[in-house]
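About this split. The held-out portion is used to measure sequence recovery: a designer receives only the C-alpha cells and must propose an amino acid at every position. Recovery is the fraction of positions where the proposal matches the reference. Here is one held-out target exactly as it appears in the evaluation file.
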C-alpha cells in the first residue's frame, strides 16, 4: 500500500462505487447541469439481459490498477474506451457527407437523408471552385467544375438556401463543413446564416414585426428581383432561412435586438468546420493562403470563439482522413494528425489563449480502412490526447476528451466488382462503432466512380443503422475492452505513434518537417508500397486481384449513374453570384478595405469576415486577402 501513489489509491477506492453504477439496473450521472438516467441492460429476444457496459471482474488490485490506468470504463480518464460513460441516446452517430450542384440540390439531399431521423447531422462537401476560394464564372478552369463533386457556395444567400429548413440552433441539428483554405470565409457565412434564421424566427413570432420587416425588404429591392430558392421545397423543409434571402438581420432589426440574438445564437449553434491547414500542406493540397496567414486566421477563429463564448462548435477538425487517402498507413495517419493537433495547441497557447478555453473546441477526423491497426485508432488517439492534455498542459477533464468523426476508407473502394464495396464499408463501420467513435460517415459503394445516388446513399446509411439497431453485440457499448488482441494492438500502435513523434521532433517539429516535405515524402512511400502489393497480388483484394469473376475478370459489371451538375445549374450559380454582388457590394461604402486594414493591423480577421460576407462574395474576399496575406506557394 505504501508504494502506491495517491492517484492509484484514489482509483482503487473509487472502483467499487463505479462498478456498482454500471451493474445496477440503472445509473445516473451529470452532464453539465443535467442529470442523465440510463438503463444498464438491454433485453434480447431470448430474454437475456445484455449489459451496456461490461466491467472486469478482477479481484487482484494489481490487475485492476493496470486496467484503470490504461483503460478504465468509458467516460473516465484516460478515455481509452470512450469519452462518455454511455452512447448518446436518441441520436445515432450517423453523419453522411453530401454535396452536389446548386445549394437547392444539396438541400434536397440533406432533407432526404434526415427525413424521419430524430437528429439532423449534416456533413457538407463543397465543389473545387469553392474549395479554392473562387466564385462561379465562365473561365474555362472554373466553369466545368461548378457544382461537381460538391456543392457550389459563393455567397451568404447560397448558404441560407443550403441549410434552409434546418434550425441551426436546435439541439438536434449539427452541421459539419469540409472546407479548409477559405474556411474562415465559409464559416462566417454559416454563422450569419444561423443568426439570420433566429432573426427570422423572432420577426415571424409577431405578425406585426414580420409585416414591418417585409416592407423594409420590399423597399430595399424596389425595382429589382429578390433572390429565391429555385424549385419546390423538399419534404421536411418548412422554409426557415429563406425569409431573409437578399438581406441580413441587421437591416431589418434594431441594433440592440440584433446584438442580443447574435450573442444567443453563437452560444448555442452546434457543428464543426474542418479548417485544418496543416494537413492540407501535407496531403490534400487545397491551400490558397500562405501557411502563416492561414494559421493566423485559424487562431483568429478560435479567439473569436473564446470571446463570444462559442461553446458547442468545433473551430477546427484536425484531420487524418486525407492523409490516409493520400496513401499513409494507419500509424502515420494517427501520428501526423495528433502531432498537427499538438502544434495547433502550442500555437494557440503562444497567442495567449488558455488551454481550457480552446481545447474543447478542437475535434478530430480519421479514416477507417481494413488494416488491423484501424481496430484501435480511436482508443490510441484518446489515450495519447488525454495523457498529454493532463500531464503536459494541465488541462481539465473536458479538454482531455478527444472527440472524433470517422469515415470509412474511400481508398478501399474499387471500381472492379463495385458491389463488394458495401461489404468492406460494413466491416470498417463495425470497427468505428465498436471503438465508440462520436460520428460516422459510411461511403456509398459507387463513390469509387461518382458522387453517390439516392439509392446508394440509402444503402450506405442502412449499413450503420443495421449495426446500430439490429446487431446484437452492439447492444454492449464497450465490446473491444477486455480483448487480448485489442489490448495488444492498442499498445503496439501507441508505441509506434510515439516513435513517429520522435522522428518529427528531430526535424524541428511539424512545421520544420513540413519545410523538408517529410510528411509528404513518407505518405508517398507508403502509398507506393500499398500500390505495389496491390499490383503484384501480395495484398489480396477480392474482386480486384483475386477471386475474379470468370466472365469479366474484375471489370465493372454494374451500370452506374454518373452524378454531375447540369449546364443550367452552372449558369444559375454564375447569375446568382453576379446578382448578389450587384445588390450587396454597394452597401459597403469602402468595399473590402476595412477587411484588409484589419489584416494589416493584425486585429481579429474573423470578426471582420463576419461583416464582409454580408456584402461580398467568396471570390471577392479571397482575392482581397491575397493582397495582404499572400497566396500559398509550396516548398520545393
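Reference sequence for scoring:
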Amino acid at each position: 500500500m505504501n508504494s502506491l501513489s495517491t492517484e492509484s489509491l484514489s482509483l482503487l477506492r473509487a472502483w467499487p462505487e463505479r462498478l456498482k453504477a454500471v451493474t445496477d439496473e440503472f445509473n445516473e450521472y451529470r452532464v453539465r447541469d443535467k442529470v442523465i438516467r440510463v438503463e444498464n441492460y438491454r433485453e434480447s429476444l431470448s430474454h437475456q439481459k445484455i449489459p451496456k457496459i461490461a466491467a472486469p471482474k478482477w479481484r487482484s488490485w494489481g490487475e485492476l490498477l493496470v486496467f484503470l490506468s490504461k483503460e478504465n470504463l468509458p467516460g473516465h480518464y484516460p478515455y481509452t474506451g470512450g469519452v462518455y460513460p454511455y452512447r448518446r441516446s436518441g441520436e445515432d452517430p450517423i453523419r453522411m457527407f453530401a454535396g452536389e450542384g446548386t445549394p437547392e440540390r444539396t438541400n434536397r439531399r440533406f432533407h432526404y437523408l434526415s427525413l424521419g431521423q430524430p437528429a439532423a447531422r449534416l456533413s457538407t462537401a463543397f465543389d473545387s471552385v469553392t474549395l479554392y476560394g473562387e466564385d462561379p464564372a465562365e473561365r474555362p478552369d472554373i466553369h466545368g467544375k461548378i457544382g461537381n463533386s460538391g456543392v457550389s457556395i459563393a455567397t451568404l444567400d447560397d448558404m441560407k438556401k443550403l441549410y434552409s429548413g434546418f434550425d441551426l440552433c436546435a439541439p438536434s441539428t449539427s452541421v459539419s463543413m469540409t472546407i479548409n483554405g477559405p474556411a474562415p470565409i465559409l464559416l462566417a457565412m454559416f454563422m450569419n446564416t444561423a443568426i439570420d434564421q433566429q432573426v427570422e424566427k423572432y420577426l415571424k413570432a409577431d405578425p406585426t414585426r414580420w409585416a414591418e420587416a417585409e416592407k423594409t425588404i420590399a423597399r430595399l429591392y424596389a425595382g429589382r428581383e429578390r433572390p429565391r430558392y429555385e424549385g419546390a421545397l423538399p419534404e421536411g423543409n418548412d422554409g426557415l432561412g429563406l425569409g431573409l434571402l437578399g438581406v441580413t438581420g441587421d437591416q431589418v432589426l434594431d441594433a440592440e435586438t440584433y446584438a442580443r440574438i447574435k450573442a444567443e445564437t453563437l452560444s448555442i449553434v452546434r457543428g464543426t468546420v474542418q479548417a485544418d491547414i496543416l494537413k492540407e500542406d501535407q496531403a490534400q493540397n487545397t491551400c490558397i493562403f500562405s501557411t502563416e496567414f492561414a494559421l493566423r486566421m485559424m487562431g483568429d477563429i478560435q479567439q473569436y470563439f473564446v470571446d463570444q463564448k462559442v461553446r458547442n462548435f468545433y473551430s477546427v477538425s484536425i484531420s487524418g482522413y486525407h492523409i490516409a487517402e493520400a496513401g499513409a498507413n494507419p500509424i502515420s495517419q494517427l501520428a501526423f494528425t495528433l502531432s498537427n493537433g499538438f502544434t495547433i495547441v502550442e500555437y494557440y497557447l503562444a497567442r495567449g489563449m488558455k488551454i481550457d478555453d480552446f481545447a474543447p473546441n478542437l475535434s478530430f477526423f480519421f479514416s477507417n480502412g481494413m488494416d488491423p491497426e484501424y481496430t484501435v485508432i480511436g482508443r490510441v488517439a484518446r489515450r495519447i490526447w488525454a495523457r498529454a492534455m493532463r500531464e503536459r498542459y494541465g488541462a481539465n477533464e473536458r479538454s482531455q476528451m478527444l472527440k472524433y468523426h470517422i469515415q470509412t476508407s474511400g481508398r478501399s473502394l474499387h471500381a472492379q466488382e463495385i458491389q463488394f464495396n458495401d461489404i468492406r464499408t460494413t466491416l470498417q463501420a463495425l470497427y468505428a462503432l465498436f471503438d465508440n467513435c462520436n460520428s460516422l460517415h459510411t461511403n456509398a459503394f459507387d463513390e469509387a466512380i461518382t458522387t453517390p445516388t439516392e439509392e446508394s446513399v440509402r444503402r450506405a446509411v442502412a449499413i450503420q443503422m443495421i449495426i446500430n439497431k439490429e446487431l446484437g453485440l452492439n447492444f454492449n457499448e464497450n465490446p473491444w475492452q477486455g480483448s487480448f488482441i485489442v489490448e495488444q494492438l492498442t499498445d503496439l500502435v501507441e508505441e509506434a505513434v510515439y516513435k513517429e513523434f520522435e522522428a518529427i521532433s528531430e526535424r524541428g517539429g511539424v512545421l520544420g518537417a513540413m519545410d523538408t516535405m517529410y510528411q509528404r515524402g513518407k505518405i508517398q512511400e507508403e502509398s507506393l508500397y500499398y500500390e505495389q502489393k496491390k499490383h503484384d497480388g501480395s495484398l489480396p483484394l477480392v474482386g480486384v486481384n483475386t477471386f475474379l469473376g470468370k466472365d469479366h475478370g474484375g471489370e465493372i459489371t454494374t451500370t452506374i449513374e454518373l452524378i454531375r451538375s447540369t449546364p443550367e445549374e452552372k449558369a444559375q450559380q454564375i447569375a446568382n453570384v453576379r446578382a448578389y454582388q450587384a445588390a450587396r457590394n454597394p452597401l459597403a461604402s469602402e468595399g473590402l478595405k476595412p477587411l484588409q486594414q484589419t489584416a494589416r493591423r493584425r486585429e481579429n480577421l474573423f470578426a471582420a469576415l463576419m461583416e464582409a460576407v454580408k456584402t461580398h462574395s467568396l471570390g471577392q474576399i479571397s482575392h482581397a486577402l491575397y493582397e495582404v496575406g499572400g497566396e500559398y506557394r509550396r516548398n520545393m
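Annotator remark: The mean pLDDT is 95.
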